[in-house]
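User: Is it possible to get a 3D structure for a protein together with its bound compound? The compound here is guanosine-5'-triphosphate. I've pasted both below.
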Amino acid sequence: MSSPMEPARITGVILAGGRGQRMGGVDKGLVDFRGRPLAAWAVERFGPQVDELLINANRNARRYAAFGPPVFGDDLEDFPGPLAGLHAALGHAAHPLVATVPCDSPLLPLDLVARLLAGLREHDAEVAVARALGRGQPVFCLCRRELRASLGAYLAGGGRAMERWFAAQRVAWVDFDDCAEGFHNLNTAAELDEAARAG
Ligand SMILES: Nc1nc2c(ncn2[C@@H]2O[C@H](COP(=O)(O)OP(=O)(O)OP(=O)(O)O)[C@@H](O)[C@H]2O)c(=O)[nH]1
Ligand SMILES: [Mg+2]
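Assistant: Yes, that's possible. Here is the predicted structure of the complex:
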């Protein structure tokens, strides 16, 4: 385990492997938001916070590759949810800590990873997870790579719920009440339109 004095080495993963069903089955990361694809917003805001950036996508791998970072899909088929992306990410990461963000929160906090890291260290936790105004934001997490075996077992047993898996680890919840709007995520075409017009 790293001491508080050591610089952390962190792999960041943009989770873009979902079905986008509430948006009509579109590949959400490729959808336009204020003139650029949603994934481009994540690359721009999250990329500078990490030492290595990867994209997890299950469709359109070539289009995602055009953003620059390496692209990988889930190990499990049939879109079992974000934990499948995290599991694959823990296998692909070059660094011992893995941070995730979803592809559909284009205004994500610019100090997300620094604050998750501080929480992880403060509580000597295995995973740090964002929370805003009392509401867990499980797809924004920082996870030790050693948890891959635990996560693999949880998924193999049929587990799919992020918060339930976190609860079985040493977890630190990190509050972002001061910038809760940064976690606003876009699930439907109406939400996308409204957020795009608000800018
Ligand atoms: N790798 C991977 N990521 C997923 C999967 N399902 C959801 N995600 C990602 O998890 C994040 C949160 O998921 P949702 O907001 O529900 O997105 P979604 O599943 O594409 O959308 P819906 O189908 O409408 O639920 C998004 O970044 C998704 O891309 C999956 O099966 N595999
Ligand atoms: Mg979903």
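The beta strands are 10-16, 32-33, 36-37, 52-57, 71-72, 97-102, 127-132, 135-144, 171-175. Residues 15-22, 28, 56, 74, 79-82, 84-85, 102-104, 139, 185, 187 surround guanosine-5'-triphosphate (ligand 1) (CB under 6 Å).
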